[in-house]
Amino acid sequence: MTAAEPIVRLDNVRRTYRMGENDLHALAGVSLDFYPGEYIAIMGPSGCGKSTLLNLLGCLDQPSSGRYLLGGEDVSTMDDDALSQIRGARLGFIFQSYNLIQQITVVENIEVPLFYQGVPEARCREVAISLAQRVGLGERLYHRPNELSGGQQQRVGIARALVNDPLVILADEPTGNLDSRSGTDILRMMDELHAQGKTIIMVTHDPAIGEHAQRLVRLRDGVVESDERR
């Protein structure tokens, strides 16, 4: 894959849910190309299809029709096992609610994606410690999530998202549960990741957060209302 080729391609993607006797068209024909190194914010009113689109991009759901290519590979019709492999090997997730495992330590939480990829234990620990230090948690390696602030927990989430060197980082309202100071710190870290060449697709409802992205895609009623590069 060359730099000129999209890292993500959505070709007339639709997602329809059956609601009783009616069909709900959450996505009504979305076509988008995202390129390596882009920082994209996806915005729009409640019910516009943002969450559905992020679930599709994250291989947590599949389109009702249309194609989704990730790194040149069509993942639209893969079975659950194949999608699970794609998620573990090619995608990094940053969640609003952190989604950390409360019973294990910082370093163990960071290791989780590598564990599911079958990476040897010693290598898992080496990479996880390095990333914990990178996000400023070198002194918290063996703390559990309930011993951390919200901002620190989200730093664990960022380190976990980076652990498999993903093609794409998907961020779902990454500062939504944080105070303004912690949120600013997290956004600065994401700006740094973008400057280092990472591809980031972020869903947010906050225009000020969307300003951090170089490209803004607005959805409305399940279609692309606008697509602005800045």
Can you describe this structure?
Helices cover 33% and strands 28% of the residues. The chain has one domain: P-loop containing nucleotide triphosphate hydrolases (Rossmann fold). The longest helix has 16 residues, at 180-195. It is of the alpha/beta class and 230 residues long.
Describe the structure concisely.
By secondary structure, the protein is an alpha/beta fold.
Provide keyphrases for this structure:
about 35% helix, 6-stranded mixed sheet, 4-stranded antiparallel sheet, single chain, alpha/beta
What secondary-structure arrangement, pairings included, does this model have?
Layout: E1 8-19, E2 22-34, E3 39-43, H1 50-57, E4 65-70, E5 73-74, H2 80-90, E6 91-94, H3 106-116, H4 121-134, H5 150-162, E7 168-172, H6 180-195, E8 200-203, H7 207-210, E9 215-220, E10 223-229
Parallel strand pairs: 3-8, 3-9, 6-7, 7-8
Antiparallel strand pairs: 1-2, 1-4, 4-5, 9-10
Helix pairs in contact: 3-4, 3-5, 4-5, 5-6
Number of domains: 1
The CATH topology: Rossmann fold
Order of helices and strands: EEEHEEHEHHHEHEHEE
Question: What's the helix count?
Answer: 7
CATH architecture: 3-Layer(aba) Sandwich
CATH superfamily: P-loop containing nucleotide triphosphate hydrolases
Widest sheet, order of strands = 6-7-8-3-9-10
